[in-house]
Amino acid sequence: MKLESDIILKVTDLAKSVSLENDILDLLSDINLAVSAGETLAIVGASGSGKTTLLSLLAGLDVPSSGSIELKGHSLQKLDEEARSAVRAQHVGFIFQQFLLVNSLTALENVMLPAELANMANAEERAIELLKQVGLPDRINHFPSQMSGGEQQRVAIARAFITSPDILFADEPTGNLDSKTGRHITELLFDLNKENGTTLILVTHDEKLADRCHRKVVVDSGRIVDEQSAEVETLRTVNE
């Protein structure tokens, strides 16, 4: 049973619809979810099931048609874009499948960017430390075009953690990587997550990645149709 004081994200009766020419398309319906601080949660489902739409709503990148989203005490559905952006800057980190690094910035500058926007005093020092943690001390002054996909994703992970977010959203973080590199990124992501005590919510097609999470929810046709504990798989992975 989750204590209310432990819940960092609470979703109640969430729905999202879009208007078409002669119809209304329901993307999500009747979503209810509570996530505790420090928890790791995987959202899984087939392509087109609504999981990425759900992630966007949870992160405040989009607004629901109805229902409520409480993130660290903020009712996202009641906020305008400027206010939601402020909540994201204060509490949220992102990792995307496409990395979304700024091509004109070095690895160090990419990692520093969120910290500079948040006026962190030690942005460069923190960025260098994180790049060392993700195994890229020799890539600090390299541009994205000079790095492999796995290296770019490691930079993206360092960037996501620099502001010490309360909650981290990851959309297919290993989707563009080969299996070996994907495994390395998975280990890195969970190591940093544990070290920083960050809540992690990720969308993935990778069952092995999903099984590393404390819990996973299955989305189908815009609804949560199943919820599973991954503790057995997690323990098996740790013991292998």
Supply database-style keywords.
four-stranded antiparallel beta sheet; 35% helix; disordered C terminus; Rossmann fold; alpha/beta
What does this structure look like?
- With 240 residues, the chain is α/β, with parallel strands linked by helices.
- It has helices spanning 51-58, 81-91, 107-117, 123-133, 149-161, 179-196, 207-210, 231-239, and strands spanning 7-19, 24-36, 40-44, 66-71, 74-75, 92-96, 167-171, 199-203, 215-220, 223-229.
- α3 crosses α4, α3 packs parallel to α5 and α5 packs parallel to α6 (179-196).
- It is globular.
- Helix content is 35%, strand content 28%.
- It has a six-stranded mixed beta sheet, with helices on both faces. It has a four-stranded antiparallel beta sheet with strand order 2-1-4-5, covered by helices on one side.
- The chain contains eight helices and ten strands.
